[in-house]
Amino acid sequence: MTADASRGDALTSTDPGTGRAGAEDGRAGVTSVDRQSNAPVADGGLAVAAAGPFGVSGIDRREASDPRTASTGGAGPTGPSAGAPRRRLVDRRWFRVAGGALLPLVLLVAWQLASTSGAVPVSMLPSPEMVWTAGVDLAERGLLGLYIAISTQRVFVGFAVGAALGLVVGAVVGLSKLGDILLSPTLGAIRAVPSLAWVPLLILWLKIGEESKVVLIAIGAFFPVYTIVAAALRHVDRQLLEAGRAFGLRGVRLLSVVQLPAAVPSVVSALRLALAQSWLFLVAAELIASSMGLGFLLVDSGNNGRIDRIFLAIILLAVLGKLTDAVVGLFERWAVRKWA
Amino acid sequence: MPATPTSTSAAALPVEFRGVGRAFPTAAGARPVLRDVDLVVEAGEILAILGPSGCGKSTLLRIAGGLDRPTSGRVTIAGSPVADYDARSAIGFQEPRLLPWRTVAQNVALGLPRGTTRAAGRAHVARLLELVGLAEFAEHRPREISGGMAQRTSLARALARSPHVLLLDEPFGALDALTRLRMQDLLLEIHAAEPTTVLLVTHDVDEALQLADRIVVLGTQPSADASADGPAAEDATPGAGIRQTVVVPGTRPRDRGSAELAELRGRLLDGLGIDRHGAARGIQSTSTIPAFPY
Ligand SMILES: Nc1ncnc2c1ncn2[C@@H]1O[C@H](COP(=O)(O)OP(=O)(O)O)[C@@H](O)[C@H]1O
Ligand SMILES: [Mg+2]
């Protein structure tokens, strides 16, 4: 492309006078060539006679099939075989892990100091030990495991349902103009509704059972996936699409060979975003109407003044959210390496 | 080294352009890019299409491959109209357009005709990669190879089709000078082993002279009233047409240093509106060998 452009500049930058002169010569050229084409062989013979040492034999054919020499002209490194450069400290794995753990440790120490020094009353800031004890206490009563399990289950079920629907609807809207026209205005309006606005309605319709929470989480997971997937499929590189079509791909095969793979990195980051959103919506659901789960633990402890349990629930939410996100993050790295 | 036939060869088919025009709609109305292109490409011929950048070379090629439709006129392959994304032709795009998530070999395999068995396909791809000098890079991803290698992969993908008509849009544009010469020879070897009709877009006069049976120069026609000098005549862009047709003398592979080709080269450059510095302009070109300082 660039070569074309630069050549093009060279070709078009001649002044009008020269261009016109060239055009006239061109017309003159046609006639003389026509004359020539009647007897091209004699001229060709002359040309061969004048070939000299720079003839065809001057080019070594065998070299052409040697990939090493053929590749030397190319720009940039030619693969992983190039010697690995020395990695900087910030690229080392242990440094990343240690660096990431630094701030939590500092916070823990600061927390410990603040709560035990008496600077802040324990009713406002329980010590880490009190939170730990509260956790052990809940675990011994079998509640901690139950709450974590039920919350995680809600997140996963809601996420799975919402993400699956998001993928399907996103694909429809992203791939079909008609789907886009029919669906995207309505979905855009639904997306604009704040999550908490659904809660009273869901409780009325689905009571305080599991369904109401799962549906709310599914709503939360649906929209990031729908939005990102639709956009990714709509914006698949037109040149790649055309290349696929030119080589005979249509319909489902075009979808599976070009469109879906091209969208994979976006889809994975959409899933990651949707999972984070699912945890947000989980707490929204459990805060308002539940008898189990980490959100319930928060409300219940708030009502009973158990600030140690509030801290416990918040820390658990942070850890669980980060863990699930890390798992999807690994998957994302793999997907990007494989598909991008 | 003679080229090995790369597959059950498909018969070369003729391509015919009849009054082909293409205009693109713009805010200021339709802008003609091509106008009245009449051209018959013989079966098995290598036809080079020369022209300045933006004159519609790629557009003409896309129309021949059924990737675009003319706004007027028609194009036929072997007498029947070109279908959308016509299966009889294969195109090597100006850009490599490789799928980044596939390996080089998998990208080439994309070009295989449908119904190729897995084993036959793999063997064919391996042979093509050998041919374009990329056998060692079969398992590399497009981002791990250079631009020139990507372009060769793209060429191999088009060859994998064993097409009746091979459409190549500046296939060697991104290659360094040496690789470019090798690839030109390679194309000739493949063509000799498996004669297909080739439409080759290039901006390189020497490449056209080296490869083609015939060269067509695209460009805007000089305005009918030659007296209309000045900006008005320049502004009018009625669309490019065939400005010059040159039958390249001699048989391939041609001597790259031939003085006769040099003379023809000068005339083609003239046709493209390039001052050939040192050529005495105004003097009629002759078919005798002049002493150009090339
Ligand atoms: N899809 C398109 N829409 C509008 N204009 C186009 C389109 N494709 C090409 N053109 C225009 O047509 C002209 C010729 O383009 P192209 O065939 O790519 O030129 P070339 O290959 O000779 O450099 C250019 O001016 C370009 O802007
Ligand atoms: Mg072009």
TrEMBL record, chain A:
Q: Which superkingdom does the taxonomy of this entry point to?
A: Bacteria
Instruction: Name the residue ranges with Low complexity bias.
Output: 67-84
Where is each ABC transmembrane type-1 domain found? Answer: 144-328
Subcellular location per UniProt equals:
Cell membrane
User: Does the record's keyword annotation contain Transport?
Assistant: yes
Supply the InterPro entries for this chain: MetI-like (IPR000515), MetI-like_sf (IPR035906)
Q: Where is this region: Disordered?
A: 1-41, 57-85
Task: Give the membrane topology, semicolon-separated if more than one.
Answer: Multi-pass membrane protein
Q: Which residues form a coiled coil?
A: none
What family is this protein classified in? Belongs to the binding-protein-dependent transport system permease family.
> What is this protein's record name?
ABC transporter permease
UniProtKB/TrEMBL annotation, chain B:
Q: Which GO terms describe its molecular function?
A: ATP binding
PANTHER family noted in UniProt: ALIPHATIC SULFONATES IMPORT ATP-BINDING PROTEIN SSUB 2, TAURINE IMPORT ATP-BINDING PROTEIN-RELATED
Note the SUPFAM superfamilies from the entry.
P-loop containing nucleoside triphosphate hydrolases
Keywords, alphabetical: ATP-binding, Nucleotide-binding, Transport
Q: What is the native source organism of this protein?
A: Agromyces soli
Q: Extract the Pfam families matched here.
A: ABC_tran
Domain ABC transporter per the UniProt entry, residue ranges: 15-245
Its domain of life reads Bacteria
Q: What is this protein called?
A: ABC transporter ATP-binding protein
Tell me which CDD domains the record gives.
ABC_NrtD_SsuB_transporters
Q: Does the keyword ATP-binding apply?
A: yes
